[in-house]
């Protein structure tokens, strides 16, 4: 196998610069909590390929299901010649998402595609144009989802013009909104919608129950239920974008459950496929079924190999009780993070979706320079961590839910060293 250095040299002549990587080592193998690079170096994995490998890399059931499916058939297109596993994945989405009402589901390839389809469905069902999104939101990189995403650099810079009829309102961000309660922050958002858009024009409100790229922002209690209640009253569709928070990541199947919110539609992807690309939209039957036959779909959506992987990943989540595992990771990591976080930093998150937001001493001024330095020190010491946040000052931790206590503790040790010295 060529060394990382050799591959990296070839890369700049072959791979577009716009596609960048966090580290410059190239992976040869990965498992449940570690990666090995082509130079034989082992990394502790606190990234899970951005909250994807919740069941670990190459989880045994996923490997077996994929192998068996590949041998039988690889693709027929569900819109041409359907197969049972697509139906079974939709049944799982219906069963696992909050809300005991009648539901339907549809499958796609990526998170962005799921969000686009949720908006299509909501607009079609309501006959209204406006889409409400929040400060710090991340919903993807396609044209519509770039417009839904808040942050300009790197996601939107010079990629416009963007889709119209998208309105951004203030989020509940306890560290940065002067300590508004959930209901107060909701009122602020709702007033903005009423004044600037008008409830009767709103097709859909799209929100991450805990924001991902935007900084692992956990809204104050009561914020999500108040926004959902407003949407219901206004006849607008409430969409929970659970692409990062879903599938056991926060210690429950979906993060909406922590606040007993029952979204009209849920978008899923990332953790759902055990590493294979698959996404879904699931929710109220009357919304989903409003769209005419042929109005939704795509060549690869719900590909049979991805469906086999998703069914195996979900089975693994049930069998190993990965919700309990995520809560166990929280119980082990949260106190450790509180102990090692620098003065003034905020430690937050749920389950195995935890973060430290770094600020300059005595202020809430973001310290992105130090954040980058700490992440780099972690990488140098063999711990794969990611940063996020509108201000680039949040270290985020997304270990696979099957990570061992030894790997977890070793990762925390490296992190403690980096926080102390970088
Ligand atoms: C990652 C992510 C997306 C986009 O998913 P892709 O599969 O990268 O298109 C959308 N919403 C949220 C909350 C995400 O974390």
From TrEMBL:
Keyword Transferase among record annotations: yes
Pathway: Amino-acid degradation; 4-aminobutanoate degradation
Record-annotated membrane-spanning stretches: none
Family matches, as CDD domains: OAT_like
Gene: gabT
E.C. numbers: 2.6.1.19, 2.6.1.22
Catalysed reaction equations from the record: (S)-3-amino-2-methylpropanoate + 2-oxoglutarate = 2-methyl-3-oxopropanoate + L-glutamate; 4-aminobutanoate + 2-oxoglutarate = succinate semialdehyde + L-glutamate
GO MF, one example: identical protein binding
Keywords, comma-separated and alphabetical: Aminotransferase, Pyridoxal phosphate, Transferase
Any one GO BP annotation for this protein: gamma-aminobutyric acid metabolic process
Similarity-based family: Belongs to the class-III pyridoxal-phosphate-dependent aminotransferase family.
Record keyword Transferase present: yes
Identification of the protein by name: (S)-3-amino-2-methylpropionate transaminase
Requisite cofactors: pyridoxal 5'-phosphate
